[in-house]
Amino acid sequence: LAADMPAMAEVNIESANGLVTVSGRVARDLVGKPLYLSCYLIEDGISTKDYPQLGMNDEDAPSDLADVFRHNGVILHYFTAEAIGDLLSIEANGSFSVTYPMVEKAGFGGTARRLVAFVHKVNKDDPYDTYVLNASEMNLGDDDSIKEIESLRS
To answer: Which of 2, 4, 83, 106 would you call most buried, defined as having the most Cβ atoms within 10 angstroms of its Cβ?
Structure first.
C-alpha cells in the first residue's frame, strides 16, 4: 500500500556541532495543514544476554535464539516535546527546518545508533486517518562510537 502512495514530503537529517537538524519540504497541497514531526535517537543490536526477550526459553524456541536475536529500534531519546510529535511550522513554499540539541545518552550496550525523523499527519478523532508522509534516518556509528559516548558519561 505504501508503495502506491506518492511521496508527500522530503525529510533530511543532519548532525553537526552538537545539533540535529531535520529539514525538508512538503507537497503544495499540504501547506497550511497540521502536520507533525517526530525525531528519535535509536539504538540497535542490543543483546538478550542482559535484556532477555519473553519466550526465549520456551520449549519450542530455536536453540540459538539467544545468540542471534538482538533488540533493534529501541528509543533512547525523543527530541520532540510531544508524544505524537511536534506541530510542524511550514513555510509558504512548503519548506521546514527544525533544530534540536544533540544528546549524549548511555544506552543498553547495543552495536549501533541512528537518528530517525518522520513527518506525519495525525487525526486525533480518527486514528485510521493518521499516517507517515515520509521518513529519514542517519547512522550515527557502530559499537566504538557508542563506547565513546558512554565513557564521556562515566
So the answer is: 106
What is the mean pLDDT of each successive set of 10 residues along the chain, which is 154 residues long? 69 94 93 94 89 77 76 93 92 96 91 94 88 93 52 42
- Cβ atoms 20, 100 nearer than 8 A: yes
Cell of 96: 521546514
Q: Nearest to residue 9, comparing CAs of 39, 31, 42?
A: 31
CA distances from 100 to 41, 50, 81, 121 (A): 12, 31, 11, 21
- As a whole number of angstroms, the distance between CA 136 and CA 50 comes to 30
What is the pLDDT at residue 136? 95
Q: What are phi and psi of 139, to 5 degrees?
A: -70, 130
